[in-house]
Amino acid sequence: MADDERNQAEACATYLKAIAEPTRYQIVKGLRSGALTVTDIAEIVELDITIVSHHLRVLYHAKIVTTERDGRHIYYALNPKLVSTKRKMDELNFGCCKLNLGS
After folding, report:
1. Most CB contacts within 10 A, which of 14, 52, 81, 92?
2. Per-residue model confidence as pLDDT tens digits over 9-50
3. Domain 3-100 maps to which CATH number in 2.40.50.100, 1.10.10.10, 3.40.50.80, 1.20.1510.10?
4. Residue ranges covered by each domain of the chain
């Protein structure tokens, strides 16, 4: 396997491992509407902030979400490089496959 193919396979595996956990999938679905704070996300998925923070860290390290600081708040958003279209954030393109987030 060539280095490029191996790198692509590793990146794809990282994306899929991160999104395979049901809570992280729900977080990603919640971020379709735009950037949110950890508190906002915790309310959506009805979990404690510390648990949501852990899941966000996994999604961040997998490069599925990005962060932006605004004062003392950190906003999490879907990585724009993975979103198929800016108008409709219902699909993530991992390169190896596309994930339809549905409605």
Report:
1. 52
2. 888 899 999 999 999 999 999 999 899 999 999 999 999 999
3. 1.10.10.10
4. 3-100
d(CA 8, CA 1): 11
Rounded-to-integer distance, Cα 29 and Cα 89, Å: 9
The token pair that represents 13 in the structure block: 């595996």
Reported as type and span, the H/E element at residue 58 is helix 49-61
Place of tokens 């708040």: 73
Which residue in the block uniquely carries the two structure tokens 């190896």? Answer: 96
In one-letter notation, the amino acid at residue 65 is V
Query: Quick check: pTM over 0.90?
Result: no
